[in-house]
Amino acid sequence: MNHAPTAAPADRTPAAPAEVPDRAQATDPGPAAVFDVEGLTVFYGGRAAVRDVDLAIRQHEITAIIGPSGCGKSTLLRCFNRMNDLIPEARIEGRVAYHGHDLYAPEVDPVQVRRRIGMVFQKPNPFPKSIYDNVAFGPKVNAMKVDLDEVVERSLKRAALWDEVKGKLRDSAYSLSGGQQQRLCIARAIAVDPDVILMDEPCSALDPIATARIEDLMRELSERYTIVIVTHNMQQAARVSDRTAFLTAEVAADDDDHRIGRLVEYDLTETIFKNPSDPRTEDYVTGRFG
Amino acid sequence: MALSTPQKATRAAVVRLQRGSGRDVKERAFAGLLLAATAVGVIVLAVLLVDILVDGLGRLNWQFLTAYASRFPERTGVRSGITGSLSLMVLVALMSIPLGVGAALYLEEFAPDNRFTRLMEANIANLAGVPSVVYGLLGVAVFVYLFEFGRSLLAGAATLTLLILPVIIVAGRESLRAVPPAIRDAGLALGATPWQVTSRQVLPAALPGILTGTILALSRAIGETAPLLVIGALFSRRSDNEPWNLLESFTALPVQIFNFVSRPQEAFKVEAAGAAIIVLMVALLAMNSVAIVLRNRFARRW
């Protein structure tokens, strides 16, 4: 995975709107695609959790994935850094291209993938170590030839945490508040200088003030990184994201208890919230269901 | 006029609250029963302790700790038992900690979940319940004869290692399992390899728990008598058991106690045995205290 982040597939020219009117990439091609997902289906133990997803994540944008619980938002997100590989019975079909290269090609090392594509989890999960060691862990294990002190300071600054912790870098990460811990996790993800940051409901365990801080931070980070965020909070998606993908859970044809996530609509956030083309999206964003 | 006013109703409710009911009596009887059960355990233990102290304290002195065994009760001592037990403990720790922690790490962090793994897990749990004398027989067959270690310190240490290995593995796995999966996800999401996550995050986080379990297992090992008797530990030895003299014969404190108790003279059977038991007990209590301190010092932080 040594190609430059800007190396977009050459064949990705803007399609005429008339050809595929319901696809975001058609109505507004925008920047180059970092991820190109085609016909992605994820199985857990032989049953599909998400089926036939097509979407393109664009560089230096914030893409929000919204939808009711159980629609496979997190499952989809975890395909982007191959975290689903860690679940033994998980299997995917379809194609996830990262800058035009198949992310699931046999020669691709998932460890290298995760090094380029960072992740922030739902619940803050700092290591039971000092603030400094939390940020320095990534550069250390990746044997990055950098000045650790400098990386730690820069990462904490970018995560808007430096001023609060600069005097106590050796203190345990658990001494921080929940919001601070989540920003520490963001700083930790930034420290390995990734290309993409995936965020899985990063504010669901935080209070409104801490949430607002993380949202401001995401806007700042999007100048440098591509961000994909899963959220169950529609206002959050509307506030921070450039594009929004709306997933819903469909009941399987053969089993009433089994739900399969489907991508309903993917477009600019403004369009999704103000002028959705699918009635299911409209019902969801106006609060009539979900 | 029997009008029910709010005041009357309140008074009636208060009276009901005060009256002792059948449930109340049962509660107290049950609590009393539990107290009795606790008391039996504590009192028996206290009586045993006092009995041992009365028997042994008079005989316990510097000469007893530093002298080799002798056929004269007033000249005998537990020097070779103490050095033997210490040697055994060091050797057992050296062998059982890497093996036990390694096995726990493999089973908890790396092993695929298949029938073979489950079979091994069930076997390890069962091995923890096998009587120690059976390990002694295994030690004789395998270490003394098959590997030709002879009736040596090495054979004794290897046997005790086998004995406590299942305990260390089970304790190790429990400590590893207590480390939240979120820590592993966090490490892997940063591009660390599974081994880097295990060695730098999961193992350090689980270490206090692993150490506590290991110390308790070791204290079980140095209190064991039966497997050492089967292996053929000597009752007495006129030179020290040196840990570097692996293929020499050896003795240990519990074996010496067994020997003292089986002699006819009161001075051996009661006084020397009591004194040696006190020595062993102090060692065991010290080890258990270290385990408790470790556990409290590194109380779980998540």
Care to describe what's here?
The complex is a heterodimer of chains A (290) and B (302). In chain A, 31% of the residues lie in helices and 25% in strands. Chain A is α/β, with parallel strands linked by helices. Chain A has a ten-stranded mixed beta sheet with strand order 5-4-1-2-10-9-3-8-7-6, with helices on both faces. In chain A, helix 4 (131-141) packs across helix 5 (148-158), helix 4 runs parallel beside helix 7 and helix 7 packs parallel to helix 8 (208-221). With 302 residues, chain B is mainly α. Chain B contains twelve helices and no strands. The chains are: A alpha/beta (290), B mainly alpha (302). Chains A and B meet through helix 3, helix 4 and helix 7 of A and helix 8 and helix 9 of B.
Compact description:
The complex is a heterodimer of chains A (290) and B (302). With 290 residues, chain A is α/β, with parallel strands linked by helices.
